[in-house]
Specification:
Layout (H helix, E strand, L loop, with lengths): L1 H24 L3 H13 L11 H18 L3 H6 L1 H26 L5 H11 L5 H9 L3 H30 L4 H30 L5 H21 L4 H19 L2 H28 L1 H10 L5 H54 L1 H11 L4 H14 L12 H23 L4 H9 L5 H7 L9 H30 L6 H20 L13 H19 L4 H20 L9
Helix pairs in contact: 1-12, 2-12, 3-10, 3-11, 3-12, 3-19, 5-6, 5-8, 5-14, 6-8, 7-8, 7-20, 8-9, 8-11, 9-10, 9-11, 10-11, 10-12, 13-20, 14-15, 14-17, 14-18, 14-20, 18-20, 19-20, 21-22, 22-23
């Protein structure tokens, strides 16, 4: 027991020291921890380290993915969902198949099913790339794609691994694999949504911040464990629960609860991520020893180098397709924007005075067939009316339609103002590095797997090699290709628009009633401004970073009022 405590304390000290030193050395914290772990494992006095893979897959990944998904801007996730789903599903499956063909060709006695199993192990990328590109500074589109990909591709890889292992023992059809994947994602999504809403409902009634945070620590496991018991993906369930929680927390949870939870989860992330990458390095000696016992020579190193090159080439090809698709969508959006503006003007006129607009439409029906024909031609050029010539059935329906138009316009502006070109694509390609999931999944291979020790070593070399090679040079690549970054001028202009908007909202808040216990006007202004920002988030009016910063300022202002006892009108 004492030995375990000493090792645990030393590990925490190493993780904390690496986190403090990494920025000064100009390297990412995970890379430094992997190198330290490899160095320590080579010391003769250090025994072999082996961690059960279920500790990583079931104990570490769900909370890490849940925490990342809570902080993921759902607005950007929705906009980039096509790219994220392609990187998480299509690219993983394509990489696994190509790698499976390669491994079954170069490794004697390895069937295609086992080759695809190893390809599925190597295919998923790690979230460490996100922390690196955030530190370097690139477009928010690149960050969203990489972060979203790392949230979902693990589930695809694990489902494909499970199907490939089953296919090695018996025949498995493509439809069985597709059905298993759809079932896994669908059941996990339903469980994640239910757990996310239940999480918000329960925690909104808990007043103690400490208790609230403790409950949040259980949510990823409450979502993942039932999903795994039903044969679905626990990781997808944890991610969906995090997305639901992150979107609804601002409305349902108090600022003090959210800030306390955020700080505590940052500590959990630091410890878990640091432990995973430190263990990756420490396991080197045991994995190499097992491979040497199998008399594999230097062949695993050559196979791993080939696999790493293939993953980069396949990723490059898919990102090339993504670039072409993005270019076509940009042209389509540029053509759509004027027509959308015309429809928006007509809807704004109807919203401003619905009765006058209805009278105008009624008068237009008696102008004769020639005029009707001309009006019809004009309507076809400008775009259709939202509810036909009789107008909307209710003001609420018109408002919903207007909100959809605003969101569509904001989405078009987002894609037009933040183009995804070859520079951004280059960063996405080089940032696709492997990590802890690859090593943990490799160790789940059953004992009867042909060349098991060599396959695990290949996966380890690919994971560590990509982390050190791609992660160590990602900053240099970004500096060379110079991808688009957020324009300071645009950020300042957006901030000014937001401040003007919030000032108008504050001016519209009436004076406090003065009744005992009633909210003060200052608190009412904060609540009104927060509601306005949430509406703007739904419409996509401002960028995710600007919204996050503005909401954080409002949270700080509300906590200051509550601490000074100025949250009620009796203190004004």
């Amino acid at each position: 027991m004492e030995t375990f405590l000493i090792i645990a304390v030393l590990a925490l000290v190493v993780i904390a020291a690496a986190s403090a030193l990494a920025p000064r050395l100009g390297v990412a914290n995970p890379l430094l921890l992997v190198v330290l772990g490899i160095g320590v494992s080579l010391v003769p006095a250090v025994p072999d380290v082996h961690i059960e893979p279920e500790w990583i897959l079931a104990g570490v990944l769900p909370p890490l993915l849940y925490s990342a998904s809570v902080s993921m801007p759902t607005m950007d996730f929705r906009r980039e969902f096509t790219a994220i789903s392609g990187l998480s599903v299509v690219l993983v499956v394509g990489s696994a198949v190509v790698l499976g063909l390669f491994f079954s060709w170069v490794i004697p006695g390895l069937s295609l099913a086992w080759g695809i199993a190893l390809g599925a192990i190597i295919s998923p990328t790690d979230a460490v790339a996100t922390s690196i590109v955030k530190r370097i500074g690139v477009s928010s589109r690149v960050v969203t794609m990489l972060e979203g990909e790392s949230l979902l591709n693990d589930a695809t890889a694990l489902v494909l691994l499970r199907s490939a292992v089953a296919g090695a023992a018996a025949s498995v059809s493509l439809w069985n694999v597709a059905g298993s994947f759809l079932y896994s994602v669908a059941i996990a999504s339903v469980i994640g949504v239910v757990v996310g809403w239940a999480n918000l409902a329960v925690r909104s009634r808990v007043e103690d911040s400490t208790v609230n945070t403790v409950i949040s620590f259980t949510i990823p496991f409450i979502a993942s464990v039932p999903a795994e018991m039903l044969g679905a993906s626990g990781l997808v369930a944890a991610v969906v629960a995090g997305l639901v929680t992150g979107r609804g927390a601002i409305k349902r949870l108090s600022p003090s609860h959210r800030i306390a939870e955020e700080q505590n989860w940052k500590t959990i992330e630091l410890v878990l991520e640091g432990a995973v990458f430190l263990l990756m390095g420490l396991e080197l000696k045991a994995i190499v020893t097992d491979s040497i016992a199998g008399d594999n020579g230097f062949s695993p190193l050559l196979f791993a180098a080939g696999a790493l090159a293939i993953t980069l080439l396949v990723r490059m090809a898919y990102v090339g397709v993504l670039l072409l698709s993005s270019r076509r969508r940009t042209l389509r959006h540029a053509d759509m924007r004027p027509r959308l503006d015309a429809v928006q003007k007509r809807v704004d006129a109807r919203t401003a005075d619905p009765e006058a607009f209805a009278r105008k439409l009624a008068a237009g029906t008696s102008r004769g067939p020639g005029r009707d024909h001309r009006d019809g031609e004009q309507r076809r050029r400008q775009g259709p009316l939202p509810q036909g010539p009789r107008g909307p059935r209710s003001t609420r329906a018109l408002e919903r339609f207007n909100a959809r138009l605003r969101r569509m316009g904001a989405d078009i502006d987002y894609f037009l103002n933040k183009p995804f070109g070859w520079r951004e694509g280059s960063v996405v390609v080089w940032a696709g590095m492997r990590g802890a999931v690859t090593l943990a999944a490799a160790q789940t291979l059953p004992g009867e797997t042909p060349h098991r020790s060599m396959l695990i070593l290949i996966a380890f070399i690919v994971a560590v090699g990509s982390l050190l090679l791609q992660g160590g040079t990602l900053g240099w690549v970004v500096h060379r290709v110079k991808p688009r970054t957020e324009s300071p001028v645009e950020q300042i202009a957006e901030r000014q628009r937001m401040l003007t908007h919030l000032s108008e909202v504050a001016d519209a808040v009436p004076q406090a009633s003065g009744a005992p216990g009633a909210p003060s006007r200052a608190l009412a202004i904060i609540e009104a401004q927060r509601e306005a920002l949430l509406d703007a988030r739904n419409d996509g009016t401002y960028s995710a970073d600007s919204l996050t910063n503005a909401l954080a300022v409002l949270d700080a202002d509300q906590i200051r009022l509550e601490m000074r006892g100025e949250a009620s009108s009796s203190h004004e």
